[in-house]
Structures are given as structure tokens and as C-alpha cells.
Design goal:
The chain has eleven helices and 14 strands. By secondary structure, it is of the alpha/beta class. A hairpin with a 2-residue loop joins strand 11 and strand 12. The longest helix has 18 residues.
């Protein structure tokens, strides 16, 4: 257990917008009408629930494949131990990491996948959605965070158990306010990630009664003006939203004599800086990353599947994606993709736009317990290893958990707590 890297998933994710579909070689996102998330579906499955997995990570991010594969195997193993789907074993289809996301999706359709888990990289989602939505096969990503994917055209076949980047906006503001700040300066890196998250921070600050006296954009290597603006505003906290330009931005904030203890870093700016910035500068600064560390029990179960596992990035989200899909099939009493898509919101404890009804049923936390709930009524409400799922009308989770890190005198982060945004925080 001590050798396992206990950390939430951390990856530089490429932003995708719905407009990106038009640039694909495939006619992405344009071939399916209707909304499978809310439309009734007649049973059409063959009796065997088949789960596919897109493992799209290569190069320096290749390590992200193993924890997702282990989690999917574990989920299928535990679903089958609880009786499988209608008494028959659930199948996890073979994976092929040597193909791009679209080709993997095509192979999974040919293998009769009823639901597919993946991909990791947001920039690969549109191509996979195009293939799978045409085949009426739901896609549930455990790792996509690009805000634009909330509105991508998928015919209702796209879901994700990871929260969108903008979900951290309220958390960043709450961290500042909880520390006593009545005003925040925002310094963000140019690009969709920075612009959209800074807008989310501004909106959250307004709702929380926190002033935003300065907002400055910068590009990597040219952060001096934005840093000076932040310092001159004399705020109670400075929120830094960045990716590859983060280290340079921090150096300029130090040069502008902004107190490092006032800094709150977005997930893209999170990192181990050590000697990369002035000695001791970040002591007391804080940062967030999406997700939470899996508990000891889940880690131990993962290791029974893959004793050599060294990382748990996105494992909880992948496990939950498989489990909630199996529960959707159980609720429908059908393994067809259309039936799964039509029942995912219900078994996750979510609510589609415009639907009537009261509060969701009390949470159940395993396939076995939720299956019993489905049999006894009124419904299942799966809260998994990654926390509450509760899909909304866009297939997004409506509650997001973030791990908080606090920096020490060595300019390196140490886990210090959790924050939750969305319904679960109320």
C-alpha cells in the first residue's frame, strides 16, 4: 500500500468546444437527433451487458491507463459477484491502447459494446462521441473536464463522472472568503481555460459578496503587468488561473511583492515548485485539484486486481462510470445502449431539466446495495468512490469534490483538506 501514489488525477487537459466538431475529419456530433437521456427506450438488448474502455493516453501520460483499467476490472468483478446483469456476467471487452480514440470506439462498436468508458483527454472526446452516438452507445468519461463538452451535440449519449473545469470557481472563492478575504484579485492565463474559469470566479465572487478589484490576463513569459495589477489592488487573496504559464506568473507575483500566503492556485497551476520560485515564497499558499484521494479500502481492492499499480488517477471516476452504467441497465432491465442512456440520470440521483419530482432517494454506495434498492423501490441513488454523481440534463455531475493542498516552506504542496461545490455542499 505504501508504494501506491495517492493523488487525484492531475493532467494538462486540452479544452474542447462544441464548435471543434466541425474541424474533425468525421462529421462529428451532427448525425444523431433527439435526447437519449430523457427519451423512453424499448428493450432491445441481447441479454449480455458489455462494457468497453477507451484508453487514449500515450507518452508521458501513458501511466493514466493502468488505474482506469484496474478500476473497470474491479467494478465488473464486483458487479458479477453481486449477480451480474439479470443473472448473467457483465463482460469487459479487450482494450487496445495503440489506436486513437475514434478507432478504439469503432472497434468497441464492432465488439457490441453497450456502454463505453473514456476517453481521458477532452480533446479526444468529440471523435469518440461521433462514433458512439451514431451507434446509440453511451460514452461516460471519467476524466474529461473541458467546459465546452457540457453543450456538445451527442444525442444525449455523452456523460462524465469528472467535473468541468469551471466547477472549481465557487471553491476558489469560498477558500478566499473562509480565510477572511473580502476581495480577490484574479490573474489568469489567456486561453479558453483561463477565460472561462476566471468568468466563473467572477460570478461566484458576486454571489458571495466578495469584491474583484483587479482581473488581469497574461501569456506565458509576459505576466508582469497582470502581477503588478494584482498587487496594486491590495486584495485579501489572489487567485491564479494558469497552466504552463504558472511558474512565470508566480515569479512575477513575487517580484511585485505580493504576499505568497495570499495565493490560491487553480488545478492547472498546481505543482511542486521547489527551487523554481523564490525560497519560501509559496509557504501558506493553497491550491486545488479535482477529485479526492481514494480511501484505503478502495486502494486495497484495486491492488487485488493489479498488484503492480502505482497510481490511482481517475480510478474512482472510472469505477463509478462502470457501476452507474450497470445500475442503469438494471433499472431498465435491458442492456441496450439506449436503455442505459435513458436511465443514467435516475440511478445517479440526478434530475433532468424540466422533470418533476421531489428529492432524490437516499444514497446507496455499491452496486449490490443499489440493486437491492431498485428491487425494493423507490429508486437507486448511487454515490460512489468519487462521491455523489447526480447527472444533470447535460450528463454532467452536479456535485464536485476538490482536494486542497497547502504549500510549505519548500514551495511544495501537502494535502490539507477537501472542498465540495454543487448540491452536495448545501
Amino acid at each position: 500500500m505504501n508504494d501506491l501514489i495517492l493523488r487525484p488525477g492531475i493532467i494538462r487537459r486540452t479544452l474542447v468546444t462544441a464548435a471543434a466538431c466541425s474541424t474533425l475529419v468525421l462529421t462529428a456530433c451532427s448525425g444523431v437527433t433527439g435526447n437519449a437521456r430523457v427519451e423512453a427506450a424499448e428493450a432491445s438488448g441481447d441479454g449480455t451487458l458489455r462494457v468497453g474502455l477507451i484508453l487514449d493516453n500515450t507518452g508521458q501520460n501513458g501511466f493514466l491507463n493502468a488505474p482506469q483499467l484496474a478500476a473497470a476490472k474491479l467494478a465488473v468483478q464486483e458487479i458479477n459477484a453481486a449477480g451480474g446483469h439479470k443473472g448473467r456476467p457483465v463482460e469487459l471487452l479487450p482494450t487496445d491502447t495503440g489506436q486513437d480514440a475514434a478507432l478504439q470506439a469503432q472497434a468497441l462498436v464492432a465488439a457490441k459494446a453497450d456502454v463505453v468508458i473514456g476517453p481521458t483527454d477532452s480533446s479526444h472526446a468529440a471523435a469518440a462521441i461521433d462514433v458512439l452516438s451514431r451507434a446509440r452507445t453511451p460514452l461516460i468519461s471519467p476524466a474529461n473536464t473541458a467546459a465546452g463538452l457540457s453543450s456538445i451535440s451527442s444525442g444525449g449519449y455523452y456523460f462524465r463522472t469528472a467535473s468541468a473545469d469551471v466547477a472549481q470557481g465557487p471553491v476558489l472563492v469560498k477558500m478566499a472568503k473562509d480565510a477572511g478575504a473580502t476581495s480577490v484579485a484574479v490573474m489568469y492565463q489567456e486561453g479558453s481555460y483561463g477565460k472561462e474559469l476566471s468568468a466563473a470566479v467572477a460570478a461566484s465572487a458576486g454571489q458571495a459578496g466578495v469584491e474583484v478589484p483587479a482581473t488581469g490576463a497574461f501569456t506565458p513569459g509576459d505576466a508582469r503587468s497582470a502581477a503588478d495589477a494584482a498587487g496594486n489592488a491590495d486584495p485579501g487573496a489572489v487567485i491564479v488561473i494558469a497552466r504552463d504559464g504558472a511558474q512565470g506568473a508566480l515569479a512575477e507575483l513575487a517580484n511585485s511583492r505580493v504576499d505568497g500566503k495570499l495565493l490560491i492556485l487553480s488545478d492547472g497551476a498546481f505543482g511542486r515548485y521547489g527551487s523554481g520560485v523564490a525560497a519560501g515564497y509559496l509557504e501558506g499558499a493553497r491550491a486545488v485539484v479535482p477529485g479526492q484521494l481514494p480511501d484505503a479500502d478502495f486502494q486495497a481492492r484495486l491492488l487485488t486486481v493489479d498488484p503492480g499499480l502505482k497510481d490511482v488517477s481517475f480510478a474512482a471516476e472510472a469505477y463509478d462510470a462502470v457501476t452507474v452504467a450497470a445500475l442503469a441497465a438494471a433499472r431498465a432491465q435491458d442492456d441496450a445502449g439506449r436503455s442505459i442512456a435513458a436511465n443514467l440520470i435516475a440511478v445517479s440521483g440526478g434530475m433532468a431539466e424540466g422533470s418533476a419530482g421531489g428529492a432524490a432517494a437516499g444514497a446507496c454506495q455499491s452496486y449490490k446495495d443499489c440493486l437491492a434498492r431498485l428491487k425494493s423501490g423507490p429508486d437507486a441513488n448511487y454515490d460512489g468512490e468519487s462521491g455523489p454523481v447526480a447527472f444533470d440534463a447535460n450528463g454532467d455531475v452536479t456535485a464536485a469534490t476538490f482536494t486542497v493542498f497547502t504549500y510549505g516552506a519548500d514551495n511544495n504542496p501537502v494535502m490539507s483538506g477537501l472542498e465540495t461545490a454543487g448540491r452536495a455542499s448545501n
